[in-house]
Design brief:
binds zinc ion, Aminopeptidase, disordered N terminus, nine-stranded mixed sheet, single chain, 37% helix, alpha/beta
Length: 498
């Protein structure tokens, strides 16, 4: 069933009609007319030769044959523009004196960051709208504004003392990509959106990707209301914080707020979506490659578990009388590593990131050991098998060591497979720009994980220095940024014509 036009789409049908009349009036230059004609021919040939279907691994993806694109060449992104904008945004930090950037969602610095992003969208003459949760959309209206659009965006919130590039590159990059396409005289068929997602980082509310989960209708209102706001632990909630920041005003309750942000059925709002991001790993830099074409996004399962023994005095309690909770946790930690290695895939990773021992005194036998375990994979079934093995081994260890055991799966989002048509468009763009590239997986979590639930989605990585991320010395070079934004521009252009 096709989706009814949103108010945003309806309001732009008129502006498109004006554009069409303008073209038909003959006042356009010969060059523009030819560009429009070639655009039409291209869109007809594209629609009869479109690639469809999902691909599960690199080997299954069809080899790319890049169609001749009627995209004016060159599409040029200035070397200094985006790096300078990234540094301007980085100055908007909750902790002005500290190292790096701290920008929690709905703080004053977040509001200033939003104003900055909106100002850049307006400068690029995009039509700006914000939804009930503060997701920002800057639209370049295409010649067929009723068609599902092409989107590109990321997040601008930053964990404490992090860097200037994570997320922000994917917010500012698309705005500059659109500006470059405009300068080159390109006219999109599908509208192209630059997006900024609300609250990708879990810092303030304990859950990641709040905005994109809502767009994908993957967030439960009762659950969202139950989350603690670390900046207002007694009375806070996501909706209260959104209201305070000037959003959610026209919503009845959290459920209504979430439903207002939903993008509807798969493919209804976006025909394709690309997230530009720093790699946050060392592969591209080590292999001296410019562009990473992401084929799959790993997703974590989070497991919280506890061993509880009886404790005792470290001197008086003889070894054979003990049921030490920490030793049980140590045994399980080794098993966690083993189960991940046993899959024989680099894509399976498992980490005991938290281990709290109680009562935590040198002269006390550990009574409690609380663990938090993160298991990630691009293969959801394989990841869940590792989680099951960890749980049953925990039970066995508890029995053997006479300690009590409890566990809870906190979260297990499904991993995402990127859409071949988006990966192909990114790869074709890199090829056209004569940039080296490779297909790879994203081991970190991104808004794209949820966007893949509502639209064919892909990610474009650029190298970052030594793979450093979420730390003040996170860095991407001006040339890598320029290359990434230019490749993004060409990919968006070709997808807008599809
Ligand atoms: Zn990010």
């Amino acid at each position: 069933m096709s989706k009814a036009l949103s108010p945003f789409e309806r309001s732009h049908t008129v502006s498109c009609a004006v554009l069409v009349l303008f073209i038909m009036s003959g006042k356009q230059s010969r060059k523009s007319f030819l560009a429009c004609l070639s655009l039409l021919v291209f869109s007809i040939s594209e629609s009869s030769a479109s690639v469809s279907g999902e691909c599960l691994a690199d080997a299954d993806c069809p080899t790319l044959t890049a169609p001749e694109q009627p995209i004016p060449s060159p599409v040029v992104v200035d070397l200094a523009t985006v790096p300078a904008q990234l540094l301007s945004l980085a100055k908007l930090s909750d902790v002005e004196s500290g190292p790096g950037v701290t920008r929690l969602i709905f703080t004053d610095s977040d509001a200033a960051g939003r104003a900055y992003v909106r100002s850049l969208m307006e400068k690029a003459e995009l039509v700006v709208r914000e939804d009930a949760m503060g997701n920002i959309f800057g639209r370049w209206v295409g010649s067929e504004p009723t068609l599902p659009a092409v989107g590109s965006g990321s997040h601008a919130d930053a964990i404490p003392n992090s860097g200037a590039y994570d997320g922000t590159l994917g917010v500012l990059g698309p705005i500059e990509a659109i500006a470059a396409l405009k300068r080159a005289g390109f006219k999109p068929k599908r509208s192209i959106d630059a997006l900024m997602f609300t609250s990708e980082e879990p810092t303030r509310f304990g859950i990641s990707c709040v905005g994109s989960r809502a767009m994908a209708s993957k967030l439960d209102a009762v659950y969202l209301d139950s989350l603690t706001d670390i900046l207002n632990p007694d009375h806070g909630s996501f909706r209260n914080a959104a209201l305070k920041a000037g959003y959610a005003n026209n919503t009845l309750n959290t459920k209504d707020m979430l439903s207002q942000c939903s993008l509807g059925d798969y493919g209804a709002y976006y025909d394709s979506f690309i997230e530009l991001h720093i790699e946050q790993g060392p592969e591209l830099e080590e292999e001296n490659l410019s562009i990473g074409v992401v084929t799959a996004i790993a997703a974590p399962a989070a497991l919280r578990c506890s061993f509880t023994g009886d404790g005792g005095h470290a001197g008086a309690q003889l070894m054979h009388r003990r049921n030490d909770a920490l030793i049980a946790a140590a045994e399980l930690s080794s098993a966690v590593e083993k189960f991940a290695l046993d899959t024989k895939s680099d894509d399976t990773v498992a980490t005991v990131g938290v281990l709290k021992v109680g009562p935590g005194a040198i002269n006390s036998v550990p009574r409690t050991a609380d663990m938090e375990i993160d298991v990630r994979d691009i293969d959801g079934e394989r990841r869940d098998k590792v989680v099951s093995k960890i749980i049953s081994r925990g039970q066995e260890i508890a029995k053997k060591r006479n300690v009590r055991w409890s566990h809870e799966i906190v979260n297990a989002d499904p991993p995402a497979t990127c859409a071949p048509k988006v990966a192909n468009a990114i790869e074709a763009a890199a090829k056209k720009l004569k940039l080296s590239s490779k297909r790879m997986v994203s081991r970190a979590y991104h808004d794209s994980l949820f966007m893949s639930e509502v639209a064919p989605t892909g990610m474009l990585f650029i190298p970052c220095h030594k793979g450093f991320s979420h730390r003040p010395d996170e860095f991407a070079s001006a040339i890598d940024i320029k290359n990434g934004v230019e490749a993004l521009a060409l990919a968006l252009a070709s997808l807008s014509l599809a």
